[in-house]
C-alpha cells in the first residue's frame, strides 16, 4: 500500500515538475524586468544577470583525498587512521605548524596546560613558548595582538577558550580583523584563524552556550566555517590556516569526542564548499555543526516512513555555497533549514533570504527553518533540551513540508 | 615617490648653496641642549645634549612647515566640502612625527590612531596621496576606501591610521610580537593619545608586552584634551609616563623636536634590551579634536595663543636656525614658499584625480585565495544596483 502511495507521489511530483518547467521556460523567454541589475563580480568585472550563476572554475575544492559521506560508513575496509575530532584538529594544526614556521598559536592555556580541549596538547614542548603563546585572560588584547602579528606576516591561530569569550574581542574581530584589508586599500592582509568551541553543550549556562555565528556573519571580510566531523575538522583547519583571509572556525563543544577514520595522506578542504551528507529526492535539509547529527537521526525515521531527504552540511557559514544548495533545491523544490543558531538574525535567516533571492522559482513550498528558541540558554537540562531543535521536530517539519 | 624624497633630502639646488654658505659640511655634527630636562620613571633619563647637524635642522624646519601647511590646507578643503566625514588635524604636534622619524629607520614600525596625516608623510608618503585619500579619490593611499583615519604605508612599515580610540594598542604590541618572532631587531612605536590612556586594552596589551619583553615603545601624545575633556577631568593620575607602574617611562617635551629625537633614540635602544617603555610627549593641538569641534568651548583662546607664542615647534626650530646662522630669514621664507607651492600642486593634482571605479566597491573585501569571493552573507557574486 505504502509503495503504491509512494509511486503515486513520485508521479505527482514529476507532473508538477513538468508544469514547473513549462512555467519557468515561459518566464525565461519573457522580457526580464531586472534590467537595471548587474552582477558585480569581485574581480571588478560587470555582467548582466542570467538567473542562477554557474560555478566559477576557481571554486574547485582543493581536497586531495575525497571522502565518502557519513561518519559511520564502512571504516574497517578503508585505509587511514582513526581519531577523535579534537585530535583531528590537533593533527591539522600540527602539520601546518611543521609546514610553515609563520604559523603560531595563541590563547588562554594553549601552552603548558595543553589547551582546554586538548587541541594543542604537547605543542609547547614541541614548538616552544613563543610559537605556542600562553596569554593572560584578556581576549580583546590578545586577539588584537594576533591581528597585529598577522599584519607583519605571521599566521596566528587564536584560540578562544570558549566562543562566548570572543564577544570581549568583538571590536578587534570586526574593525581590525574584518575591515583592515579593505580600509588599507588592500595593503595589509590578516591571515588569522580564530577558533574555539561554541554551541549548546551540556548544561553550561547562558554565557557558555553561545552561537556567535549570528553575530559575526555581518562582518565584511570575515569568512566563517563550521566543522562537524574529524575529516572536515582537519581539512578546514588546514584550509583556514592557509587562507589569506581571516577565518573563524566554529567547533562544537559536544563534537570533540566524535570518532572517525580519516585518510593518512595530506588533504585540504575548500572553505566555501558545502558537504553532501546524504543525497535524496524529496526535501533538502540544510544544516551544520552538531545539528547535522540531529538531522541524521531524524533522517533514519524519515526513511522508514518512506521519505527520501537530501541532507547537506553547509559547512561554509559565510559565504554560503549556493551552488550545491541551489542544485539540491532544483532537484527537491523543498527546503528545511535546521540550525542551532538563534531564530532572530541567525544563519538560518540569512540562508533563507539567500534562497528566496536566488531560487524562488524553484520552490514548491515555503522554506521552513528550525532554530533554537530566542532565549538565553537555560541551565536546567529539560529546558535546555527544549531550547535546541530535536529530531522529532525535524521529522514533523519534513512531514509537513512534503504533505 | 618624488615628493617623498623631497621630504627627506634637499633636492633643490638652493638648499645646497645655502648650506655651503653657512657651514663647510651640512652633515657636520652640532650639539644642542634640550630646553627642558626629561623626567624619568624607573629608568635613567638620556642626556640632555642632542647631536644634530645643520642639514637635519633645516630638514626639520622644511618638513614641519610642510605638515603645518598640509593640515591648514586640509582644513580649508574641509570647509570647501571637498573633504567630508571625519578629519583630525595634527598642527601643533608636528615635532613628534618628525623627531621620531629622525631617530628610527623605515623598518621600524609605527602605528597610530586617527590623527595620522602627518605621520604618513613623515614615513615617506606624499601629500598628494594624503589629499587624494581625504577627497576619496582613486589615487589615495588606501584607494579612497579608508579616508582620513585610514592612511597606511606598508613599504615603510606604517601600520595605519585606526579609527577606534585605543583599539590599535593591541595591534601595536602584536606587530612587536611579530618583530620579536622573526628576530628582526626592529621596534614598534605605538602612538596613542591621553584620551586612549584610559582604555583598558592599553594596559592589557602593555602587560603582555612587558611579560614577553616585546620591542614596543608606547608613545603617549599628551595634547591634554581627550576630545573636549581635559586630562585632569578624565584621569586620576595624568602623569601618563608613570601610569604603567611596572614599565619604565619618560616624560618628554613634545614641542621640542630634538628632545623627541633623543627620547626615541633612547627608547629604541631600551626596548631592544629590556622590553617596553612609555614615552609621554607633552604637546598641544591648535585645532579642535576634529572638524566639528571649534576647539574653544573647553579651553580659552589665551591658552592656545600662549602655546603658539611660547612653545610652537616650528618657531623653535626657526629661532635655532637663525641664531646659529644656518640660514637667513628670507631663505626660510623661501622654503615656506616652496612648501606652499608643493602643497598647492598636490591639492590640484588630487582634485583632478578620478573617483574610484564602481567595481572597486567589492575589491579588497577578501583576498582571493582558495576560491574566496565576495563575502556577502550568502553569495559569491553580489547583486547590486549601480548608478
From TrEMBL, chain A:
The catalysed reaction is:
N(6)-[(R)-lipoyl]-L-lysyl-[protein] + pyruvate + H(+) = N(6)-[(R)-S(8)-acetyldihydrolipoyl]-L-lysyl-[protein] + CO2
Query: Where does the UniProt entry say this protein principally localizes?
Result: plastid
State whether keyword Oxidoreductase applies: yes
Enzyme class, top EC level, equals oxidoreductase
Q: Which GO terms describe its molecular function?
A: metal ion binding; pyruvate dehydrogenase (acetyl-transferring) activity
**Cofactor(s) listed:** thiamine diphosphate
What's the Enzyme Commission number for this chain?
Answer: 1.2.4.1
Which InterPro entries does the record cross-reference, listed alphabetically?
A: THDP-binding, Transketo_C/PFOR_II, Transketolase-like_Pyr-bd, Transketolase_C
List, alphabetically, the SUPFAM superfamilies matched: Thiamin diphosphate-binding fold (THDP-binding), TK C-terminal domain-like
UniProt keywords, alphabetically:
Chloroplast, Metal-binding, Oxidoreductase, Plastid, Potassium, Pyruvate, Thiamine pyrophosphate, Transit peptide
- Tell whether Chloroplast is among the UniProt keywords: yes
Q: Where in the cell is it found?
A: Plastid, Chloroplast
Pfam families associated with the record: Transket_pyr, Transketolase_C
- How is this protein annotated for GO cellular component? chloroplast
- Name the job this protein performs: The pyruvate dehydrogenase complex catalyzes the overall conversion of pyruvate to acetyl-CoA and CO(2). It contains multiple copies of three enzymatic components: pyruvate dehydrogenase (E1), dihydrolipoamide acetyltransferase (E2) and lipoamide dehydrogenase (E3).
Quaternary structure per UniProt?
Tetramer of 2 alpha and 2 beta subunits.
Identification of the protein by name: pyruvate dehydrogenase (acetyl-transferring)
Question: What is the species listed in this Swiss-Prot or TrEMBL entry?
Answer: Dendrobium chrysotoxum
UniProtKB/TrEMBL annotation, chain B:
InterPro entries with a match to the protein in the record: DH_E1, PDH_E1_Alpha_Subunit, Pyrv_DH_E1_asu_subgrp-y, THDP-binding
Could you list this entry's UniProt keywords, alphabetically sorted: Oxidoreductase, Pyruvate, Thiamine pyrophosphate
What's its EC? Answer: 1.2.4.1
* Presence of keyword Thylakoid: no
Q: Name one Pfam family in it.
A: E1_dh
Cofactors demanded by this protein: thiamine diphosphate
Going by the record, the broad EC class of this enzyme is oxidoreductase
What highest taxon heads this organism's lineage?
Eukaryota
- GO biological processes: pyruvate decarboxylation to acetyl-CoA
**The Dehydrogenase E1 component domain covers which part of the protein?**
63-358
Annotated segments matching region Disordered = 335-360
Output one GO MF annotation.
pyruvate dehydrogenase (acetyl-transferring) activity
Q: Which reaction does it catalyse?
A: N(6)-[(R)-lipoyl]-L-lysyl-[protein] + pyruvate + H(+) = N(6)-[(R)-S(8)-acetyldihydrolipoyl]-L-lysyl-[protein] + CO2
Q: Give the quaternary structure.
A: Tetramer of 2 alpha and 2 beta subunits.
Which NCBIfam families did the record assign? PDH_E1_alph_y (TIGR03182)
What is the stated purpose of this protein?
The pyruvate dehydrogenase complex catalyzes the overall conversion of pyruvate to acetyl-CoA and CO(2). It contains multiple copies of three enzymatic components: pyruvate dehydrogenase (E1), dihydrolipoamide acetyltransferase (E2) and lipoamide dehydrogenase (E3).
**Name recorded for this polypeptide:** Pyruvate dehydrogenase E1 component subunit alpha
> Upper lineage ranks?
Eukaryota, Viridiplantae, Streptophyta, Embryophyta, Tracheophyta
Amino acid at each position: 500500500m505504502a509503495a503504491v502511495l509512494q509511486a503515486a507521489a513520485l508521479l505527482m511530483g514529476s507532473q508538477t515538475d513538468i508544469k514547473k518547467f513549462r512555467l519557468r521556460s515561459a518566464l525565461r523567454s519573457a522580457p526580464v524586468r531586472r534590467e537595471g541589475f548587474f552582477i558585480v563580480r569581485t574581480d571588478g568585472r560587470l555582467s548582466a544577470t542570467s538567473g542562477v550563476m554557474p560555478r566559477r572554475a576557481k571554486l574547485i575544492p582543493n581536497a586531495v583525498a575525497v571522502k565518502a559521506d557519513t561518519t559511520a560508513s564502512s571504516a574497517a575496509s578503508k585505509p587511514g587512521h582513526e581519531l577523535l575530532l579534537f585530535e583531528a584538529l590537533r593533527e591539522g594544526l600540527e602539520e601546518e605548524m611543521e609546514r610553515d614556521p609563520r604559523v603560531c598559536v595563541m590563547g588562554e592555556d594553549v601552552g603548558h596546560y595543553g589547551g582546554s580541549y586538548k587541541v594543542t596538547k604537547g605543542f609547547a614542548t614541541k614548538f616552544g613558548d613563543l610559537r605556542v603563546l600562553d596569554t593572560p585572560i584578556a581576549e580583546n588584547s590578545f586577539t588584537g595582538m594576533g591581528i597585529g602579528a598577522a599584519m607583519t606576516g605571521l599566521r596566528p591561530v587564536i584560540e578562544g577558550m570558549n566562543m562566548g569569550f570572543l564577544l570581549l574581542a568583538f571590536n578587534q574581530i570586526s574593525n581590525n580583523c574584518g575591515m583592515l584589508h579593505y580600509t588599507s586599500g588592500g595593503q595589509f592582509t590578516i591571515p588569522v584563524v580564530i577558533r574555539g568551541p561554541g554551541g549548546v553543550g551540556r548544561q553550561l549556562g547562558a554565557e557558555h552556550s553561545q552561537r556567535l555565528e549570528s553575530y559575526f556573519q555581518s562582518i565584511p571580510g570575515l569568512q566563517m566555517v563550521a566543522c562537524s566531523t574529524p575529516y572536515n575538522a582537519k581539512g578546514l583547519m588546514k584550509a583556514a590556516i592557509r587562507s589569506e583571509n581571516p577565518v573563524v572556525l566554529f567547533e562544537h563543544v559536544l563534537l570533540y569526542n566524535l570518532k572517525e577514520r580519516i585518510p593518512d595522506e595530506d588533504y585540504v578542504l575548500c572553505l566555501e564548499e558545502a558537504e553532501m551528507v546524504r543525497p535524496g529526492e524529496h526535501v533538502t535539509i540544510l544544516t551544520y555543526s552538531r545539528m547535522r547529527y540531529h538531522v541524521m537521526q531524524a533522517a533514519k525515521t524519515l526513511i522508514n516512513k518512506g521519505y527520501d531527504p537530501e541532507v547537506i552540511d553547509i559547512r561554509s557559514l559565510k559565504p554560503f555555497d549556493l551552488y550545491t544548495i541551489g542544485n539540491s533545491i532544483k532537484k527537491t523544490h523543498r527546503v528545511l533549514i535546521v540550525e542551532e543558531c538563534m531564530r532572530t538574525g541567525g544563519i538560518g535567516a540569512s540562508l533563507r533570504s539567500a534562497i528566496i533571492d536566488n531560487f524562488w522559482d524553484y520552490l514548491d513550498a515555503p522554506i521552513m527553518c528550525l532554530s533554537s528558541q530566542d532565549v538565553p540558554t537555560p541551565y536546567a537540562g529539560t529546558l535546555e533540551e527544549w531550547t535546541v531543535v530535536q529530531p522529532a521536530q525535524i521529522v514533523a517539519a519534513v512531514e509537513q513540508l512534503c504533505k | 615617490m618624488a615628493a617623498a624624497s623631497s621630504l627627506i633630502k634637499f633636492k633643490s639646488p638652493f638648499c645646497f648653496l645655502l648650506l655651503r654658505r653657512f657651514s663647510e659640511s651640512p652633515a657636520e655634527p652640532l650639539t644642542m641642549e634640550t630646553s627642558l630636562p626629561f623626567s624619568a620613571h624607573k629608568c635613567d633619563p638620556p642626556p640632555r645634549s642632542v647631536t644634530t647637524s645643520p642639514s637635519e635642522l633645516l630638514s626639520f624646519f622644511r618638513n614641519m612647515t610642510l605638515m603645518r601647511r598640509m593640515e591648514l590646507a586640509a582644513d580649508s578643503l574641509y570647509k570647501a566640502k571637498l573633504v567630508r566625514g571625519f578629519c583630525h588635524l595634527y598642527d601643533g604636534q608636528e615635532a613628534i612625527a618628525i623627531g621620531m622619524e629622525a631617530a628610527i629607520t623605515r623598518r621600524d614600525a609605527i602605528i597610530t590612531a586617527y590623527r595620522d596625516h602627518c605621520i604618513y608623510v613623515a614615513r615617506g608618503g606624499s601629500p598628494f596621496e594624503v589629499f587624494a585619500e581625504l577627497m576619496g579619490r582613486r589615487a589615495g593611499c588606501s584607494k579612497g576606501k579608508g579616508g582620513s583615519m585610514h592612511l597606511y604605508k606598508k613599504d615603510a612599515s606604517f601600520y595605519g591610521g585606526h579609527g577606534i580610540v585605543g583599539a590599535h594598542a593591541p595591534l601595536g604590541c602584536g606587530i612587536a610580537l611579530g618583530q620579536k618572532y622573526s628576530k628582526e631587531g626592529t621596534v614598534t612605536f605605538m602612538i596613542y593619545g591621553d584620551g586612549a590612556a584610559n582604555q583598558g586594552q592599553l594596559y592589557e596589551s602593555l602587560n603582555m608586552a612587558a611579560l614577553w619583553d616585546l620591542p614596543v615603545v608606547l608613545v603617549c601624545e599628551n595634547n591634554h584634551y581627550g576630545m573636549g575633556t581635559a586630562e585632569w577631568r578624565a584621569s586620576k593620575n595624568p602623569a601618563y609616563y608613570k601610569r604603567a607602574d611596572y614599565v619604565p617611562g619618560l616624560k618628554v617635551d613634545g614641542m621640542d623636536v630634538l628632545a623627541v629625537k633623543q627620547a626615541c633614540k633612547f627608547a629604541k635602544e631600551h626596548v631592544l634590551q629590556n622590553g617596553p617603555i612609555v614615552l609621554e610627549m607633552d604637546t598641544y593641538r591648535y585645532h579642535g579634536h576634529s572638524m566639528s569641534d571649534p576647539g574653544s568651548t573647553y579651553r580659552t583662546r589665551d591658552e592656545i595663543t600662549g602655546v603658539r607664542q611660547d612653545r610652537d615647534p616650528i618657531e623653535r626650530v626657526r629661532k635655532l636656525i637663525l641664531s646659529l646662522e644656518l640660514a637667513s630669514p628670507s631663505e626660510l621664507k623661501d622654503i615656506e614658499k616652496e612648501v606652499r607651492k608643493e602643497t598647492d600642486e598636490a591639492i590640484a593634482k588630487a582634485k583632478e584625480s578620478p573617483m574610484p571605479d564602481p567595481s572597486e566597491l567589492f575589491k579588497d573585501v577578501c583576498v582571493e585565495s582558495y576560491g574566496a569571493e565576495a563575502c556577502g552573507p550568502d553569495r559569491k557574486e553580489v547583486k547590486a544596483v549601480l548608478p
